[in-house]
Amino acid sequence: KNNRPSLYQKFSTQYDEILAAEGDSRLRAWFLRHLQNPRFDLYTGMMPSYGHLTEEQLDALTAFIFTFR
Fold first, then answer.
1. Distance between CA 10 and CA 63 in Å, rounded?
2. Would you give the DSSP letter of residue 29?
3. Residues 6+ apart with CB under 8 A from 63
4. I need a labelling partner for 44 at 20 to 30 A (CA). Which of 4, 8, 26, 34 fits?
5. CA 62 vs CA 2, 10, 28, 69: distances in Å
6. 32-53 residue pLDDT tens
């Protein structure tokens, strides 16, 4: 039997934060988590992590991404 926790269990607090937000705030929360650790929702993804960036830099990057809407 596999004793490893599921990915949801491992990242459930991050999902809780995202799901607690509404509208654009939810999308921004998802982008922040995704940029910090792209594998939290797609474990086999190839996107590099931007976890080395500061919160301010991640906010700026997220704001930049939102300009493409």
1. 27
2. H
3. none
4. 26
5. 36, 24, 7, 12
6. 888 988 887 777 888 898 889 9
The contacts of residue 51 (CB under 8 Å, 6+ apart) are 35, 36, 37
- Quote the DSSP letter at residue 49: P
CA–CA dist 67, 5 (Å, integer): 37
pTM over 0.90: no
Q: How many CB atoms lie within 10 A of CB 43?
A: 10
- Whether the CB-CB separation of 10 and 43 falls below 8 Å is answered with no
- How much is the pLDDT for 14? 74
pLDDT of residue 60: 94
pLDDT digits (tens, 9 = 90+) for 55-66: 899 999 999 988
